[in-house]
Structures are given as structure tokens and as C-alpha cells.
Amino acid sequence: MVYFILKRMVQSVFVMLAVAFLAFSLFRFVGDPITQMTGVETSVKDQERLREELGLNDPFIYQFTRFTGDLLKGDFGFSYRTRQPVAKMIASRIPATLELGVVALIISLLVGIPAGVYTALKPRGVLTQTILMTTLVGVSIPTFVIGIMLIFIFGVQLGWLPTFGRGGTVQIGGWESSLFSVDGWRALLLPAITLGVYQLTLTMRLVRAEMTEVMRSDYIRFAMARGVPTASLHYRHALANTMVPVITIIGLQFGGVIAFSIVTESVFQWPGMGLLFLESIRFVDIPVMGVYLVVIAFFFVLVNLVVDLLYVAIDPRLRIKDVS
Amino acid sequence: MLTIKDLSVKFPTRFGDFTAIEDVDMTIKPGEIHGLVGESGAGKSTVGAAVIGLLQSPGYVANGTLTLGDTDLRNLSPAEAHKVRGGRISMIFQDPQTSLNPLMTIERQLIETIQTHSTVSESEARNRAVDLLEEIGIKNATERIKAYPHQFSGGMRQRVVIALAISTDPELVIADEPTTALDVAVQSQVLDLIQRLAKERQIAFMLITHDIGVIAQVADRVTVMRKGRVMETGVTAQVLGKPQHHYTQQLMDSVPPLDRKIDRFRVPEADNTIASNGAMAENWLLEGSQHARTGLSLTGLSVKFAGPRTSIFRKPPPYVALDDVTLNIKPGSIMGLVGESGSGKSTLAKAITGLVTPSSGTMELGDDVLPYGKSRSRQHPSRQLTQMVFQDPYSSLNSRHRIGDILTEPLWFYGFVKDEQEREKLAASMLSLVGMQPDAISKYPHQFSGGQRQRIAVARALLARPRFLICDEPTSALDVSIQAEILNLLKDLQAKFGLTILFISHNLAVVRQMADDTAVLRSGKIEEVGETNALYTAPQADYTKSLLDLTPVMPTTWQT
Which residues, including other chains, have CB under 8 Å from residue B195's CB and lie 6 or more apart? Predict the structure, then answer.
């Protein structure tokens, strides 16, 4: 067990290093930051001086080592665009993205799992067919179209919900949260639904497929033959076994939700990390982009580790050694 | 008391109703073990499923009456039927590995079942569960009850399954192949347990199995089924000892006896006209076998697998699958290899064929020393000389390939026949030789039954012109009558072409019929090797003795 966790952690370090290397080497080809930072009136001599000061003339390996070294020390550098420390910029954006991602995940689980169970238990029902059709439509429409449609219906036509921004936020320590005011929730709803729709469909279809499989298994048939009450049969015996493989995919998808919230954030002008990344791309703000990618990779690695631990918590076969 | 009268079960399909069982009559008294035998597709399990009301959708009971005591089982509301399940009728499944919920402790599964059917407190239910486990033969039950299913061995798990099934004092237990997945030693313990429960608790058992030996050993009465109909029913000794019905006689003739060797099974022979078309393949094979017969000798062969890693610093102790195995298979003879599951039988086959790398020892095929595992090149002659016939004919043939493609592959692969049409002709002739119609060549594997597929697998092996054939449980997935045919076929081919065969099986009776010499394998070690007849009549090792004692057979006094 301890060995298993340690092994995963060592692997994670290598993953992080690889991501840092990729991120850093990619951004050497996206354009020249100096031309973005300076205007036409800056002399070539000043541009050269700036280049030298920022260390852009150093060999690649040297720059990369400095980049990772600084990251490890907790020094994330300064943005070329705003001259602010990158750490502060990202930190101020993380709450918005995390809250959006987590609420989207919760929505997708709250709807996706029951829907998956229902469609698995009543495969021929009218409601099942309706759900399957609707989600098929939902999954085939791109995220930004769904976002724009929601804005059009609930924001423009009905005027129920705001169409951009985070609404009223509450400051708790260094964390700017929209979860503690009605206004914040109103602003959060549309983007969270937009972001969660794809995950919801996936969760539902996965739960449905796994559950159908589990319901055919011997231990469920044996439980039926023992007259185990239907509710326990479905939710205690079958659902738990269904969730074992489903958790992995949900975990991977959650990493994806955080990483690809870019589209949703830009549709709703949601001031999260994704929006910051988009702005940074426009200004070739290499330090911000690099750190953004590393932070996202860190989330992925963390979520995966948590999924592995959850696995162990759920499945006794991984937790307890065979005795006989 | 269970009474079944004129029971018919139908499965609606697009092409009209398919009748799975028809006009089945049966009564099972309390305390009686009623055997239900028949080959696959006979409808045995359907009878059990209909009684407990768990027919696979969309099957339904079309006709007949099912009564348990005074209760008409067909006239129950779904809720009432669910109450009867577990409460009055219970069921035991074939595979103990898959019939327990892996995520719940057996304590929770037992308590839940007990509390469903009687209003008792949780601690009372727990006490009852512990008593039950003790009764069923699980030692230290107060501790063991907290374990998860995977913490029990196969035999113990089947005991837990039985404990669950009888935890609510049912009147009837339907046991669907309860010992098929178990080794003989465990099988005999489970059968003893079933007998004891029937006697002490007066539980009626419906024992569904294809194993005549099991029926002979424990069943009071037996019903023989075929294609959904009852062929014969009566007291076990009567039905099996003096079978009245033609089908039962045939079935009994196909059962390999443990106590003697018979030359051939009395089964309907393949059409002679088909066999005569095999002359071409026969000549081709004989032509290839001009050179000396090829034996195999293994000296000090060991195979180790990496054990599970538990620490970063210490290397895990290896799992020893084969331990210093020395075995000499004489050219042109059949060596039987018996042992329980996990004894290393299949690992031995894999080491010989180069699929597993041994850690030490030598293997000699004829005069050649065989290189280990991956260091054996693909062009090495032993790859052609050694061929395998696998256990499961359903997965050993590529379902996307024509039979013709499957059979001609070794011919072009080893460069025997250059001309494509010639290859097809030879393959068709080989099909005749193994007793199949030559037109099978243009069909696909799914169009054939298990027995036919196994014939195709044998044909494929022969088309590589092997001198040494490894048959790894070649008949254990087949019905007993089909098994008899395949065994006859293998015997004929071996005699004709002087093949050397390593015949692996867990079924001692089958090995007795086939092998000249027999080796007994246990936990990777050879317990005993010897001439088959001598080994069966006067076994030296205690392990061999116990294996022979525990194999269920028909009492000799029954035999006609």
C-alpha cells in the first residue's frame, strides 16, 4: 500500500517534469515576446537590452533549468504583460475555475448517475429512450454552442440569469468565492451547466453500460435468488460494483473539465484561469502560459492520485491481502 | 415437496417461439437429492430457473404447473414470488469466484439475507450466521465472517455460497453445477456437505450437473434430459445401472470409466465415406513422418514467476510454478499429465512451446535441445514439430477467418505446399480425416458446434506435420458424448501417425483411457510417474491415492 503510493508519487514527479519541459519548449516557438511588449518607438538597442535582461538570449537548456528551478523554489516569475508576479495572477484566478469545475462535476454526477441507473434498470422504458436521445443531441453539440444557446434562452429571452462574469463574490481569506451569495450562484449556474453537460452524458452512458453488465453478473443473480430486497439489490449490491470502473473515467474527466474550461470561460467571460490563458496567448506572455500548463498538469496528477486512493478505499480486493 | 407437471418454457424470437423445455414432469421430496443430467442445451438450467422464477428475459412459462407444498408458484404476484426466493427456494451457482458480491463482507451479505426473511435483530442474525458457517465447516467463524469473499479459497467460497443459500431455511435448493468449477478434493467435500444438509435439515436438492459420476455418488433419484424433454427418470442406481432409454444407454457408454481402460468408446462412428476422402491427407502426413519418432525429455525444469511486490527494497520472493520437473515422454507414446488447478500443468505446456521462459533445466525434443522462451527463434524447427490443441474450441479459432484460411495457414507458413489450390485440397482432405465434411472449408467457425470446432483444431495442428502434440484439456469444455468422439479420434490419429502426445487433463478417468504413461503433478512438483495401468491400480504416492479415491464414480455393483 505504502509502496504503491510512493511509486505513484515518483511517477508523478516525472510526469510534472515532462510537462514542464514540453510547455517550456513549445512556447519558444509561439512568437517573440519583445515585439509584443514594446511599441514601434522603442529603439532596437532598448529591445536588445530588454531581451538580455529577461534572459531570453541564454541557451535553451539554461533557460529551462532556471524555469524549473524557480518553480521548485516557489518563484513563478513575472508576467511580461502586466509586470505582476505570475503566482499572484494565477492564484487570484484559481478559485473561479475550481468552483466552476467542481459545481459542473457535481451537477454531472447528481444527474448523470441516477439517470444512468434508471436507464440501466428500465432499458425499454419510454423515459429511457427519451433520455438517451436527448443526451445524444447534447453530446453532439459543441460546448460553446450550448453556452450561447443557454445565454440566449435564460439570459436574453427570459432574462432570468446573468450572462457573464461571476456576479457577487464573497472574500474568504484569500479565496474569492461565489458560492455564498445568491447573486454568485445565479452567475455560476449557466457556465457550470454548459461545462457539465458533456461530462454528464459520459457519466450517464458509462454508468448505464456498467450497470447493465453488473446486473447480469452471477452475484446479482444469486442475490436475486436469495430474495434480497430490490432497493438493496440495486443500490447496495449493483451500484457499488458499477462505480469501481466509473470512478477512473470520472476522475480523468474532471481533470479535463478544469483544463478545458477555457471555452466555457471565454463564452461567459468567466474570470478564471482559462480566460487568463487566452489573454496570455494573445500577448505571448510566456511565463504565465508555462505556469498555467504546469498548474493544470498538477491538477491532473493530483486527481489521478486521488482516484487511485478512492479505488483502494472502495475495492477490498486491493486493500486486503488474500488469506487462504 | 416440489411438483413439476407438464412444464413448458418458451423463448419468443423473431421467427416464432423457441421451446426450451417441453412437458417436463418431476417431483422432489424433502431431504431428497434429485439429479438432473443432460448435455449442454438439454434445458437442465431452464428447469431450475423456471422453478425459482428467474428465467432469462424474454423466456416465459408457457404451460404446466409448478407447486411447492401447497403454493402454486405460477400464480404468485412479483412481490410474493420475491419472498419465496430465498425464503423457501434458494439457489447455488456454478462458479464460487463470481457468485458473491466482491465489495461486501460475507457478514453483511449473510445478515442482510437473514433479516430479509425473518424479523430478527442484527446481533441475532449475526449469531445465526456464525452458527451456520460453523455448521458448514468454516473454522473460526466469528473471525472469518468479517472477511471479504476474495479472502476465501474456491472451496471455502462455495461453502459460503451454500451457507447463504440455506441461511433462511429453504425447503428446496437448486444447485446448478455446484462442483463443476472445483477440484476433486474440494468437490468431494462440497458433495458431502450437500448430502449432510439434505439428511439433517430435510432440504430438497435439485442437483443440476453434466457429471454422471457426481450424480451416481450423491443423487437419490435422477432425471435424464435431452433437448428439453425428459428421457428417463427414476432411482439413480436403476437409471444409471440399467438404463432403459436408448439415449441414457448411449450417454452411459460415453462416460470414461476410472477403474478400467476401454479401447474405444461405443459411440456412433463418423461416416466411412467421409473418412475415405482423407487418403490424400493421410499419405501427406505419413510422408512427412518418415524420420524417427520424436520423444521429449525434460530435466530439472523449473519455472518461476515474479511474486507481488510489497516493499521497495526487498525483492519479492518468486512464485514457483514448476519445481525441478524431470519427465521423459517416450517417442510415439501418450503421456498423461494430471493435477488440480494451479498445479502447473499448463505452465509445463507453455514452457515446452516456448511461451514461458524457464529459470533452469533442459528440454530436449528428439535430439535437439530446445532454447528457452523468447530466445527460441520463430524459424526453430520445434515450432513446427510441436503443436497444441487448446481447451476452449470457442476461443481458439479466429472467428473472422474461414476454416480454409485457418487450415491452410500452417501449410504456407511452414512452406510445405506452394500452390494455393493444392493447399485447399489438402486442407479439405484433412477435414475428412478428422471426420468432417470437406465443404466445411468455406464456412466460418461460428457455424460449427464445440465438438466440430475441436476437430478443426486437431486438423489445424496436424497440418503443421507435428511429431509432438500437446493437448491441454482438449475435451473439458465438451459434452461427454462429444468427448468420447474426440478421444476416439485422437487415439486413431496417434496410432496411425505415431505421434507423441502430452495429454493434459484434470479428469483422471479420461487420462486413464488415453495415456500409456501418466504423471501426477502437484504444486509444480511431479508426485508420481508411471505406466498408466500400474499407476491407477497401485498408486504409490498418497496424493495419487487420494485423487483416485475422491473422483466420483459409479459403484461397480451397478454396472451391467
Answer: B33, B218
